[in-house]
Write a structure and sequence with these properties.
- Helices cover about 75% and strands about 0% of the residues.
- Helix 1 runs antiparallel to helix 2.
- The radius of gyration is 14 Å and the shape is elongated.
């Protein structure tokens, strides 16, 4: 998946999560599922596009 597509999916899922949380509450099962899906997309983005910092630099 190319970076722009992944960013678009992240933005869409974030907007969906906000709407679901407003409608059903942040602790609803739907909001939790959307949050987990957003986490998955963000983790994928970090794995593929964020430069790794060497552990000696910390």
């Amino acid at each position: 998946m190319i970076k722009q597509d992944l960013v678009a999916l992240i933005e869409k899922k974030r907007a969906e999560l906000i709407q679901v949380a407003i409608t059903n509450g942040l602790s609803s099962s739907v909001a939790i599922r959307y949050s987990q899906e957003l986490d998955h997309l963000l983790n994928e983005y970090n794995r593929n596009y964020i430069k790794k910092v060497p552990s000696s630099a910390c």
